[in-house]
Design brief:
Low-confidence stretches: none
Shape: globular
Radius of gyration: 17 Å
Strand order of the largest sheet: 3-2-1-4-5-6
Helix content: 40-55%
Strand content: 5-15%
């Protein structure tokens, strides 16, 4: 019996993963870093702690970690000022949230993004109050694919992995949920080089994912 649905946020609730990837790639290229798509794709789904280390390697350690963080923070703030999250909100998720509430299925967000960023997006999209808990990867020593964020979420929800489903899009996120023994539905992504082969199920959109959740309930 399904008792909990755990959502990743970027790339699932909002179509922002491709924006993150675009901004990170732009910054690295501006700094004279790697143009190898396979190497760049490893940035997808990372928390900022892990992301900075990867970015530093991709630009050839040409600056200190502090300088990179300061410069990238300013760069991102300028880019995100122009983002309208409502315009990239996957509105059909409301059907899943309503279904979960009607069946008393617990809802959670487990995202690698900073807590402030998660809260901002969920509030702007008017879905913040649907979730029983919101967990940020910034509160853990290692980000996905380390399963700690999922294990912590299961513990707070007081449900077993077999009573849960995770909805993810990135390779790291899928591996994290699988390492926590949670079945995974991947929100299909074909625009970036993302390996989703480890997911148990794949949904092209929220309507398809809702049908999968019906079957699993």
């Amino acid at each position: 019996m399904l008792k909990a649905i755990i959502f990743d946020m970027d790339g699932v609730i909002v179509d922002s993963e491709i924006l993150d990837y675009k901004f990170q790639k732009e910054f690295i290229l501006n700094e004279g870093g790697s143009t190898n798509e396979e190497e760049l794709s490893e940035l997808i789904g990372k928390s900022y702690n892990d992301l900075y280390g990867n970015m530093l390697k991709l630009i050839g350690n040409k600056c200190s970690m502090k300088d990179l963080i300061d410069k990238f923070t300013i760069f991102l703030e300028e880019r995100y000022e122009e983002v309208n999250y409502i315009s990239i909100f996957r509105e059909d998720i409301l059907d899943i949230l309503s279904y979960a509430k009607s069946k008393k299925i617990k809802l959670a967000v487990a995202s690698s993004s900073p807590e402030k960023h998660i809260h901002r997006i969920l509030k702007e999209c008017n879905i913040f109050t649907y979730f029983n808990i919101i967990v940020s990867g910034e509160n853990f020593p290692e980000s996905k694919p380390n399963p700690e964020i999922y294990l912590h979420t299961l513990n707070i929800l007081k449900v077993s992995p077999q009573e849960s489903i995770a909805i993810e899009d990135s390779y790291s996120g899928i591996l994290a949920a699988k390492a926590a023994k949670i079945p995974v539905i991947a929100y299909e992504e074909n625009r970036m080089p993302v390996d989703q082969s480890m997911a148990d199920f794949t949904g092209q959109d929220m309507k398809k994912i809702l049908r999968l959740i019906h079957d699993l309930s």
